Amino acid sequence: QAAEQAAAPAPAAAPEAPPIGSCDATQVQSLVGQALTDAVSDQARTDAGAKSVRVLKPGQMTTMEFNGERLNLEVDAKNVI
Fold first, then answer.
1. What digits encode the pLDDT tens for the residues 3-26?
2. Quick check: 19 and 68 in contact, CB under 8 A?
3. Residue 33 domain boundaries
4. Quick check: helix, strand or coil at residue 1?
5. Does 4 map to a domain?
6. What is the CATH classification number for the domain harbouring 76?
7. Of 11, 22, 35, 63, which residue is most buried, by most CB within 10 angstroms?
8. 3-state SS string over 7-41?
9. What is the DSSP letter of 77?
């Protein structure tokens, strides 16, 4: 019986919640459809409570690490959010 317990897989760890102080992208949904400018990027960063902004263009390679203080803005080929 001890061998059966030792062979049982460990339960999967629960995913970690975003750290306190993470940006809140829901605060900038009103910017969807606007052309991305420096002023719009700065407004989005401030409104979301983010420390930085990463602009993601179509087909762009990105790293997958989580940074709760960074706002990702996805734009299309015409630079529209």
1. 555 565 666 665 555 555 688 889
2. yes
3. 23-60+67-81
4. coil
5. no
6. 3.30.10
7. 22
8. HCCCCCCCCCCCCCCCCCHHHHHHHCCCECCHHHH
9. T
State the total domains in the chain. Answer: 1
CA distance 7 to 27: 47
53 membership: H or E segment, kind and range: strand 52-56
Residue with tokens 């975003």: 18
Supply angle C-alpha 17, 14, 9, rounded to 5. 160
Q: Residue 2: inside a domain, yes or no?
A: no
| Tokens 């734009």, located at residue | 75
Predicted model pTM: 0.69
Residue 12 lies inside a defined structural domain of this protein: no
Span 25-71, pLDDT tens digits: 899 999 999 999 999 999 999 999 999 999 999 999 998 888 999 99
Look at residue 47 and tell me if it is in a domain: yes
